[in-house]
């Protein structure tokens, strides 16, 4: 016996019925967001879910290179914990982001949680070519307002690394580093990344 298949119209109708079981955009609570069981990258801002695109191969190569460098430096010196997305970082009430890389100093270990971290001491973002303003403007403002001491913006479009350091409630430029230079950290004295070495990873 051949079972009937659902028509596209019926399938769409069923999908819509499932969607109606969830809160409308702008009405999600933190508890509902944190209870989501999905392998998608989803950020949360003032009651709204923001579904992020899956990272590309070149993006993940950059993340892997930076993770190895940062982890090696931090572990050698016993400075704290380094992790990578997906990992929720709470920036404040009703605001969660998932930076590409995060560092939490050992003295702030009480802010490490199983579901999310309460802030971070250093974050790194690989700029998305589809929405560069998100990393360069929106997250720059949000990370500063939440008190994260250092923010690295890694931009594959011009092969640059911008390092920002917190001054009050805003970031000041520590350095904009390009090919042939090494990006340096203010927070982690002695930690450096050779820009040319980093971006050669994405082109291999």
From TrEMBL:
Q: Which GO terms describe its molecular function?
A: endonuclease activity
- Domain Putative restriction endonuclease positions: 31-195
One Pfam family from the record? Uma2
- Tell me which InterPro entries the record gives: Nuclease_put_TT1808 (IPR012296), Restrct_endonuc-II-like (IPR011335), Uma2 (IPR008538)
Q: What keywords were assigned to this record?
A: Endonuclease, Hydrolase, Nuclease
Keyword Kinase assigned to the entry: answer is no
Record-given protein name = Uma2 family endonuclease
Per the UniProt entry, what species is this protein from, by scientific name?
Caldilineaceae bacterium SB0661_bin_32
